[in-house]
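Tokens in:
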């Protein structure tokens, strides 16, 4: 194994500093965007005459339901990430390339707070406002309209649009199948699912870097 020069150490230290700055920018930027979506939810809700908080109440039972409901979604993500199917492999590679460097050294609590903002913002807008407003045209029509829009706005790849749409339908059903309706359930499910995916991406990305470093030192 070759000895590392001072320039190598300096380059690595600068890279770590840049990575740390990118991670903080990602968390801050993601949080601000999600807060912006919350503001948009209130604005759209005001325009449509629907309060995004109308069906949001604190309830320990519904919180637990939301946590448990996130497990099937994550299991689907975990399994498809290992399937030898090009479309799913492209999705995972995109997430590793785009999110991996930004969460590699991220603090777990910061990522969790980011996921809370994401889950709250997107669910307030799509399920809390748009789905509630569109229900006047029928429940099925409301679910279709809301989640086609939800899928299109998550267009990483064509397959991901389909997957995001189906996940949106799942969270729409979580809202309407429990009585009384409580937006806390899909908010919690969305939050926990995103958080578990971040943890998965962090783990896989770190493992890939360790494997690359081990290979380079051989």
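Residues out:
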């Amino acid at each position: 194994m070759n000895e590392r020069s001072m320039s190598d150490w300096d380059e690595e230290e600068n890279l770590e500093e840049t990575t740390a700055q990118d991670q903080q920018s990602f968390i801050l930027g993601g949080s601000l965007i999600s807060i912006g979506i919350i503001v948009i939810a209130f604005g759209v809700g005001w325009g449509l005459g629907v309060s995004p908080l109308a069906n949001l109440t604190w309830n320990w039972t519904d919180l637990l339901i939301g946590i448990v409901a996130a497990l099937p979604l994550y299991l689907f993500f975990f399994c498809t990430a290992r399937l030898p199917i090009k479309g799913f492999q492209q999705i995972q590679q995109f997430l590793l390339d785009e999110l991996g460097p930004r969460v590699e050294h991220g603090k777990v609590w910061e990522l969790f707070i980011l996921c809370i903002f994401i889950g709250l913002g997107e669910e307030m807008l799509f399920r809390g406002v748009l789905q509630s407003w569109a229900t006047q045209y029928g429940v099925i029509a409301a679910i279709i309209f809301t989640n086609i829009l939800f899928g299109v706005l998550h267009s990483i790849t064509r397959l991901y649009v389909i997957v995001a749409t189906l996940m949106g339908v799942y969270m729409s059903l979580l809202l309407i199948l429990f009585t009384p309706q409580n937006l806390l359930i899909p908010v919690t499910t969305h939050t926990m699912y995103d958080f578990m995916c971040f943890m998965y991406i962090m783990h896989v990305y770190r493992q890939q870097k360790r494997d690359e470093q081990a290979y380079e030192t051989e």
